[in-house]
Predict the structure.
Amino acid sequence: MARRSSRPVPIGELTVGGGGPIVLQSMLSLPLADLDGCRRQVEALAAEGCFLIRVAVPAERDLAQFQKLRKFLPDKNLAFVGDLHYGSELAREALDVFEKVRINPGNFAIRRRPAPEEYGEDLFQRETDTVAAEAEEFFKKARRLDRAVRIGSNGGSLAARTIWRRGHGPDALVESALEMGRWARGADFHGLVFSFKCSSADGTIFANRLARKRMDELSWDYPFHLGVTEAGNGLLARAVGALGIGLLLGDGLGDTIRISLTEPPAAEIRFGKKLLAFCAQNPLPNPPKRTGPVTLLEEGSGPNFLELPPPKEPFDGELCLLETLRTLLSADLLETVCLPPGPRREERKKIARAALQACRWGEFFTAIVACPTCGRATYDVAATVEQIRERLGERAGLRIAVMGCCVNGPGEAGAADYGCVGCGRGRVNIYKKGRCAIRSVEAERAAEELEKLAGTDCRSGPRP
Ligand code: SF4
């Protein structure tokens, strides 16, 4: 399908939308206090061809730190996005410093999260009015300075008032962003980019398609930023990201993309380039509906059988994953997949399992939902993911959230079977079945504590 037309949104020297090339972006995973580390990450991203870079701004001092970082970076083609949560005043100040500011409609101008039972029409309306007034000021300034703004809603950080009114699903994700969009338009501000993200490929696809439909009804033509958030790391994260983004690209959506990986930011760009090039040549087809799981065999055959083709040489695991996904999605009736003999059998088996699990046609590993980390993370998320994988990585059917801070942490950990969420320097809260079970544990002990809490919990057991 041809790309959907969207209005061009200038971001410094770059433009997103307007039929231009799809812009790859990433985010620094370090706090701005680590100027040297941030500079190295920016240089690595620019070397990979990434010129749109997001930076977490948790506090006012980070604005000054960012100005220092900018002085080390003479490349005028780089455009930076300040990532703001909670304080509307800080978001307004960030407009002075960044080419683009990302705000989260789920927490803009609201810090306290009343419990759902506190809500009624009165509190809902009061909160809505407060956010609307703050948003008006913010967007008026954005218009005056000619900045771009991303309204980025996220399934892990929906506003309590939105959940009270609309629940946790895609409708809430979409309406939360569109409400903010209406306030932007009320201030006659149109430098908008929208995103609707959650931590599953199917949830993200559904939300973006719903958003496109609603925006068509409103005759809005703002660019879409695509991404599946908190996908984790390794093969499964790539499979989930490729599926979510790839199918939406096939719908003609997407003006800028971010692959979310709990890995160094440049890895996001390397895989993003491969995904865009692959999808341009071989669009991922919308999969037919499946009713049951697909069996993966190492030899033999079975009902509604598909043999995966041998990988191309020279072998590239990421490309092999994309080819496997495309082959699986193309099959009309699929109950059995066989991996033919050949080189790199173990790697190909892991790739096939990751692709099937991303499509929800099989469960082979623990689904580790991990944030890509940013300057807000209070502990080493990547190291904790590896420790958890070592102890609990083969619990097919379990979902464990490993989140760097409170922005999306309680939401994702609350929705997973188990989770840990950064709660202070080097410390995490541990969650079990939606509730915080242990407070403020050293992050190094998180995997051990989770293993104890999980006991023998394993919904469907490991599969061959
Ligand atoms: S949840 Fe992770 S990526 Fe999101 S704001 Fe917190 S540390 Fe950053």
Observations:
- The two ends are 38 Å apart (CA to CA).
